[in-house]
Amino acid sequence: MKSKFSWRAFISFGLTWAMLLILVSGVILYVAPPGRYAHWVNWELAGFSKEGWQAIHTIFSLGFIVLSIFHLFSVNWKAFVSYIKSKSSKGFNKKKELALSVLMVLVFFFGTVFSVPPFKTIMVLGENVTNSWEKTEERAPVAHAELLSLDELAAQLEIGEVSVLTQKLESHNIHFSNTHSQSLQQIAVTNRTTPMAIYEILAKKPANQGQGMGVGRKTIDDFAKELNKTSDELLQILKANNINAQANETLRTIGENNNLPPRDVYKILSE
After folding, report:
1. What is the Cα–Cα distance from 185 to 251, expressed in whole angstroms?
2. What are the backbone dihedrals phi and psi of residue 219, each rounded to the nearest 5 degrees, phi first?
3. Which ranges in the chain belong to alpha helices (H)?
4. Residues of the chain with pLDDT under 50
């Protein structure tokens, strides 16, 4: 004979599995890296991203609550009601236990809210472990840089034309569709890599140093060394193009003084 399906056993097993998954996911999220780093390097643990573990923790926490409600109302409701009636008629005789449990909840609640040791110590420890994932050389240039488009990144790197970045991607066989709306993270997903790897390609300075980032911060003296020319030669080139400049001025300053973008000044110098 087939045994009758036991809802009591089903709910008990469900609560056990939910509790285990809540415990595991909670510990992982306690030590997981911050979101800005997790997104930048596509961090995963056991095949799940940080968002994946957050989803597991949330869904199984909800499942635990639902199963607990079923456990109370469908399995132990009669016993629960009988207990309440019995205590109501006889008077509650566990006053010490009630008072202690309430006190414990208040201590935990306000200790956490006001960051009182040892609750503060636990949170600080978690933050230290979380921040230890992020290495200086792997740090994003700005918070959530993975959300930047190529157009936005060109402005961040002080590059006048986004075509400089698209040429770098094309030379590395990186596929992209839109420089305005497609983010580094979306490009990374399309090419099965990380936003950090895409950024390293885009931010890397080429051999001549001129096409890289920070052109506007370079002075005439800097470019003279890079182009194997003298500062006077470069100043003469600018003068021939009706551009006034000093050897110690940056291209940004020269551009501002002559109503030109720094990239145009650079093109004139490098021709």
Report:
1. 32
2. -95, 170
3. 7-31, 35-41, 50-70, 77-90, 95-113, 119-131, 150-156, 163-171, 184-190, 195-203, 220-226, 231-240, 251-257, 262-270
4. 207-213
CB 270 within 8 A of CB 210: yes
Task: Give yes or no for a contact between 147 and 135, defined as CB atoms under 8 angstroms apart.
Answer: no
Looking at residue 217, its amino acid is R
pLDDT value for 38: 87
Position of tokens 């240039």? 141
pLDDT per residue as tens digits for the range 166-201: 888 888 888 988 888 899 999 998 898 989 888 888
R_g of the chain computed on alpha carbons: 31
CA distance 132 to 120: 18
Q: How many CB atoms lie within 10 A of CB 47?
A: 6
**Beta-strand pair 44-45/48-49:** antiparallel
Provide the residue ranges of all domains of the chain, joining segments of one domain with +: 1-91, 94-135, 140-203, 215-270
- Residue 215, number of CB atoms within 10 A of its CB: 24
Tell me the C-alpha distance between 230 and 221, whole Å: 8
pLDDT at 24: 96
CA–CA dist 210, 201 (Å, integer)? 15
Q: Name residue, tokens 């093109």.
A: 267
